[in-house]
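Board notes (copied after class):
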Amino acid sequence: EVQLEESGGGSVQAGGSLRLSCVTSGFSFDDSDMGWYRQAPGNECELVSSIRSDGSTSYIDSVKGRFTISRDNAKNTLYLQLDSLKSEDTAMYYCTETGTGYRGQGTQVTVSS
């Protein structure tokens, strides 16, 4: 059974930081391309960042220089470091295996200005 479980969300003030984690099981994590989506109320879901199995990364322009995606293949875990948070980063964040679309239940990030 494929499982992805996010954690690390919370409420912070603008300028603060959070580190999201996603523990996975049930598929070959180290062979998988992974990513983080987010969805705010009334907005479409957007792929914030992704990391391929070879470690190459990509980010949407609005988070470049503030967010850092990483992975620990030994722990089957995906991370997203969120720094210099802004109110517009408020959303539910989901971990996903980008090839299949598997995703977790999400973790809420709320940034107050």
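Comment from the instructor: The first strand starts at residue 3 and ends at 7. The two ends are 40 Å apart (CA to CA).
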